[in-house]
Design goal:
9 helices; alpha/beta
Length: 210
Amino acid sequence: MNIENKRILLVGKETYMYPFYYLIDEWSGKNEIATFWVNPMESELDECDLNSSTYYAFKRKGITKDYTLTKANEKFIKICNDKINYEELEALEKKYSHFKNINCQIISDQAMNGHYHYRTMNIPVTYEQQLNWIMCLYENIEEILDDFNPDYIFDCDTAELPRNVLNEVAYHKNIPYISCLLYTSDAADEEDSVDLGVCRIIKKKKKIMI
């Protein structure tokens, strides 16, 4: 893909970022590159087996600006049990529900919905905590897009709440968000229904599914 003189935001977590590790070498000389890591544990921990070959591998390249959810994490720790500001929440949903309402956005995050699946490392949370978390995410992600102002957003997966939030904010700001789902270990377990290629392109208020 020939892209020049653009600001490109690469989104991902864990090994799903591997394709971008090599694309950065091709794109960085002609474009300004930044990464956005949607898994808080990956970017918040010191270097270890979880993040040595992903987050810290990108940092060692030294050619990208890194964005994380640190601000959302820090704010959520302080306000997670606070009463919901429903006026703020209603304004948020009115502004950012082009594809899903707030409740549908919330259930896309396995970390916030431990009662729906078998991954016991995710501690169940209250509905109020879920709402406080998504408001923290919107604030953090709005700041990221305002700061970097990308021409394009590229992603290699479609899962997790931060991506839903990013999708909504990018659409509102008319920023093309291109997500190519290359492969997932979860899909491999489905045997006859492995999805090897899904591309979602959002450009100029239009959504194209391929």
